[in-house]
Every structure is written in structure tokens, then in C-alpha cells.
Amino acid sequence: MNHAHGFPDIIKSILSHRLLRWFGTCSFSIYLWQGPFYSATKDFGASAPLCLLFGVMAGALSYYFIENPARLYLNRKWDAWQSAKKQVNGASVV
Q1: Predicted TM-score (pTM) above 0.85
Q2: What DSSP designation does 2 have?
Q3: N or C: which end of the chain has fewer CB within 10 A?
Q4: Where does residue 38 fall: left (phi above 0), alpha (psi -120 to 50 degrees), or beta otherwise?
Q5: 56, burial (CB in 10 Å: exposed 0-12, middle 13-18, buried 19+)
Q6: What is the Cα–Cα distance from 94 to 76, expressed in whole angstroms?
């Protein structure tokens, strides 16, 4: 993606599509959840299209209810810690 600025406009337009951006946002959670559903197709003969759908749904739910809230919480804590650290360092210099 380092050279994406040089892609033809049609490729950039396709990669910027809302659905592809959504899959990119949720991709890590979908990746984590696809394993159990893939195993269900191999070990128990479950329907592959149905397991694909459930894997994407589980990944999306995991992203919106676990991954994203945890990321936002950790970012708030990190920002507060960085601000406090700057205040302490600034106060000790003066």
C-alpha cells in the first residue's frame, strides 16, 4: 500500500468502496472468528456458505462489542497517561 498513490484511479476507486473499507476495518476480528466456523465445515460437515456468513457476523459483532471498545478505552488511558507524564516532566524542568 506504500505505492497506492500511484495506482490508476479506477483501482483507487474500487479499493475505496465502502464495503471493502468495512471489511478492512473488521478484518482482524473476522480472521479470528473464521477458524471455528471453518472447523465446523471440516469436522461436522456444516454448510460452508452458512459458516462463512456466521464467521463474518461473529467477527463484526466481536469488532463492534469487544475490539473497538477496548481500543477506544486503551487509547483514552494512553492519552491520559501521556498528558500526565508531560505535566510531570514539564513541572520538574521549571
Answers
A1: no
A2: T
A3: C
A4: alpha
A5: middle
A6: 27
Report pLDDT digits (tens) over 29-87.
Answer: 999 999 999 999 999 999 999 999 999 999 999 999 999 999 999 999 999 999 998 88
Q: CA 34, CA 46: separation in Å to the nearest integer?
A: 13
Write the CB contacts of 51 (distance below 8 Å, at least 6 apart in sequence): 37, 38, 40, 41
**How far apart (Å, rounded) are the C-alpha atoms in residues 56 and 3?**
29
Angle made by CA atoms 62, 67, 20, in degrees to the nearest 5: 75
User: CB within 8 A of 28, min separation 6: which ones?
Assistant: 63, 67
> Does residue 93 register a pLDDT over 70?
no
Instruction: Assign residue 12 a region (left: φ > 0; alpha: ψ between -120 and 50; beta: otherwise).
Output: alpha
Q: Which three cell numbers stand for residue 61?
A: 459483532
